[in-house]
Amino acid sequence: MSTGFFSHPLCRKHNPGPGHPERPERLAAIENALQTSPIRERIIFRTAPKATDQDLRRVHHEGFLEEVNFLCQSSTYFPSMEAEVNAATLEAAYLAAGAGIAAVQAVMKGELTNAFCAVRPPGHHATAHQSMGFCLFNNVAIAAAHLMEREGLSRVLVADWDLHHGNGTQDIFYDSSRIFYFSTHQWGIYPGSGSADETGSGEGRGFTLNRPLMMGDGDAEIVAAFEEELKPAMEKFQPEFVLVSAGFDAHALDPLGSLSVTDEGFRRIATATRAIAEKHAHGRLVVFLEGGYNLEALGRCVCDLLDVLSSYSHSRK
Ligand SMILES: [Zn+2]
User: Fold this and answer.
1) Would you say the pTM of this structure is higher than 0.90?
2) 82 CA to centre of ligand 1 in angstroms
């Protein structure tokens, strides 16, 4: 049993344009940090496969997929995604979604205890109908839908600690009692959603939990949200699998936000999330890269995250 690292060299080929923060160097920064880290010895590296159209259709509408294919083939600026797109973008996006499918399959089979998907473009802003905020396909939602429809699970937690609210993931599962969506995010910035009174609708009422944070908030506030809000909620929900939208743009050094989470804060929320997976879900945990735009902080925090994931794997051997 061990920790997997899913990525693909072509995820670096998507270039959203000059000066864009969601740049290919983000994945290089993670791989460079891992090169010099002893944690590398504890990780199993896997090459991500492409998702199929059937995988994507569990979350995204057919018309949207046709539009995305057309726009990427014609190489253009995609306003809602806020990024330039071309054929390499489309290839990277299919691999980003495919990484998540392969990771959850490997964990369900017991080949891996848990896994991290170092992929781009990120996913959590993409809705069923629309790409948004640097995201083309909603990678974490596609993995969650796979777990429900192909693996037969009925309770999956998606925890999202990105700086920004994962409006797409929330929207896709807002009416569902099978996916519990939890998010910490800076209040008052893009995309504008994620207030505490957004709790789900219909059968999904009570299965969305938003904990907006205020400018300047840091380790104490984000750790409290995971320890004092998410953990008790999971005692009731009892997830069978835990997925994470892991952005590192809530870091104090990040250029996009005004939160002040430190390396240690990220380590603590990763540890809290791992504990939830261990207690309720046989340790099953797959983490997706979302944002994080300070390259040094990103590299360090991903190494710390892999340390937390693989420590669990080792303790269970
Ligand atoms: Zn973000």
Assistant:
1) yes
2) 13
